Amino acid sequence: MRWEVHGDGGGRGGRTNGTGPAAGAVVVAMKLKVRVVRYGCPGRERWYADIDDADDRQPDDPYWYVAGCASQCEALAAACDRLVQLAALLSEGRQLERVSYPAAA
Questions:
Q1: % residues pLDDT > 70 (the chain)
Q2: What average pLDDT does this structure show over 10-31?
Q3: Which end of the chain is more exposed for a tag (fewer CB within 10 A), N or C?
């Protein structure tokens, strides 16, 4: 999944037809992936999901995760909901933080 945010919240774009990045715009592009994994003993399986860089080969520090979901569908739905929230943060010009680097309170 690739998110691109163009513009500074102002104009419609840099071209006369209203498309393209606005003049002086900040462009943020992220390639994110959702990973869903089943874990646990037979009969007591649970599902885990995380969101990370598509290019990050080490799944040790994602942007978000959830564990203990009762079904694959539940884990995937939670990840999709979080992707919507992450897209909103990016559209506001904010940078995403990894799990190991939470914002200071």
A1: 68
A2: 50
A3: C
Q: What span, in angstroms and rounded, lies between the C-alpha atoms of 41 and 46?
A: 9
Q: Say how far apart CA 66 and CA 44 lie, in whole Å.
A: 17
DSSP assigned state of 2: E
Q: What are the residue boundaries of the structural domains of the chain, listed by start? A: 31-91
Q: What is the four-CA torsion angle of 17, 19, 22, 28, rounded to 10 degrees?
A: 180
Q: Is the pTM of this model over 0.85?
A: no
* Cα 80 from chain centre: 9
Residue 84 to residues 51, 77, 79, 87, 99, Cα–Cα distance (Å) = 12, 11, 9, 5, 18
Q: Read off the pLDDT band of 30 (50, 70, 90).
A: confident
- What value does the mean pLDDT take over residues 13-35? 59
